Amino acid sequence: MAPPPASAVADAMNGPRSAPRDSQTNIDIMAVTKGFHWPWFIALMLAVSGVVMAAGALVYQTYVGLGVAGYQAPVFWGVYIITFVFWIGIGHAGTLISAILFLFRAKWRNAINRGAEAMTVFAVLTAALFPLIHIGRLWKFYFLLPYPNQRYLWVNFKSPLIWDVFAVNTYLTISVLFFIVGLVPDIAIARDRAVGWKKVLYTIASGGWQGTGKQWKAHNRAVLHLSGIATPLVLSVHSIVSWDFAMSIVPGWHATIFAPYFVAGAIFGGFAMVIVVMVPVRRIFRLENYITDYHFENMSRFILFTSIICGYAYLAEYFIAWYSGIEAEQTSFWLRAFGPYWFSTWFMITFNVIFPQLLWIKKLRTNVPFLFVLCVLINLGMWFERYVIIITSLSREYIPAAWGLYIPSTVELMVLTGSFCWFSMFFLVFLKVFPIIAITEVKELQIHAKEPGHVDGHWH
Amino acid sequence: MANTLVSVYDLPSDVSNVVRKLKARGFEDLTTYSPAPFDEIELAEDPKPSGVRAFTLIGGLVGVVTGFGLQIWMALDWPVKIAGKNFAAIPPMWIIGFELMILFAGILTVVGLIGLGGLYPRKLDEHYSPRFSAEEFGVVVNCEERDVAEVESLMRGHNAKEVTLHASH
Predict the structure, then answer these.
(1) Domain span at residue B137?
(2) Residue B10, SS3?
(3) Distance from C-alpha of B15 to C-alpha of B36, rounded to nearest angstrom
(4) Which helix (H) or strand (E) holds B137?
(5) Residues of A with CB below 8 A from B56's CB?
(6) pTM summary value
(7) Among candidates A7, A14, A207 on the partner chain, residue whose Cβ is nearest the Cβ of B119
(8) What domain count does chain B have?
(9) Is ipTM over 0.90?
(10) Which tens digit of pLDDT belongs to each residue from A284-299?
């Protein structure tokens, strides 16, 4: 029997349609970008004020010279380099969550990976400022790049500082690309529901995304490959940062354990920062259904694990210093614990090793206020870890007559505070423009859970 | 006269099943819309590996060659003898070589995504709907007038909650 003509069946088929309903996940997560939230606004104003204050300090330092920093012979690496290492480390948890846990198919990451990726990008953006601030003459930064010049000189490719330039720039580029690639499908969701200037912004940023099979295929493969290359990259970046120290012969720095020690410390501090950032976000924007205690518990397990690695590294350093029989090494480590910087060392040990052991207790792993306080202290502990490594070694090198004492100056502390405000400012603006939770990844789990025969109803 | 049938589904398994059936019946001119990534739909629609992998490989190779080439050229351009080693000593070059391999591979991967996924600001497909960025799936098939009934029957047979016909003259 011949089929009826299409035009005849068209009317019959195109009857009244059910009104399309939006997904509750879209509504809940996009709600963060809508409306006005006082806590958010106050935080943003504080962040902007801090950035302005730090910019003022920086202009003053640039005008007067690096003498206004606390640099004093023999210590010429101070707060700026410490803070650089700190922020690079913070970025590592984002890549670990988005890339390494993706490769391991750890689905629980889906609710927190966007926030962690954003944190990575903004942390690396913050970190990248510090070598420039540290060199004093900001406008000479291009000396770090291999460019043709009148002196026919190239950069020294055997220097870890040049390795750092390449590693940090590669890390920043790959983190930004990874972040944007993951965001595109979610921006399309926002585009379909936006009006006004946001509609224009999202239309451009979503790049014609419609979720076709062809687009998802290319997207899935790109995410897989970016994860595959970001994994060794993230391990290399903090290893290279550690070689800034370990490639020298300064007592306390010249150790082969530095690369894994730094990588573990970076993941430790990074996870702590994810918790510090996500706890208030979850509370203020009512995202308890998406970022659950289960996520915090899993992150606290990572913190516990990496804290043990850090503790092992601290002990190994002391053991090797003693076992080496080298007096300069032994003295350096003795002075760390009992010299003028003893407070930093014991602060670091207390909050990076001793207190995190409380996370063996399940009740504390799921106690969000406790986790928040602990993670703030861990972040301080991780900053002090870099302070201990850098300052104690430089201030007590070989000849006691050349020893010195380093005390951070007001300008340095203002720039340090400003770095936290700079990071927060970007994060707060991001919160109001783009979805803080990867909507499509959450929906993938939710929709699969609806399939008949699906056993685990939990999308996390 | 071209006919386009647009069907809407709730579950990815229904989409993958109907796509497989449609392709088996020779209806190759079809597009799926999905609110999230689902392997089963990807495999049903096009089981071939994505071309993005070639971009990553080429980027990685170009990067590692650039990394070593840059350093060897610069070492020979301003030769400095250090500890009796070659002017262009290879071992320390692995670090920059590795970083540039990753950098170029990442950039080319995204170029591949943009090229193969058609990711550039443009007008959206006529049959795309915001409901496909909510929780529903779409399968759009272009077919001849004589095939409309068969395609519709296949769609409805796989739990299409809605099928609409768009006939263009």
Answers:
(1) 2-49+127-168
(2) coil
(3) 13
(4) strand B137-143
(5) 225, 229
(6) 0.91
(7) A207
(8) 2
(9) yes
(10) 999 999 999 999 999 9
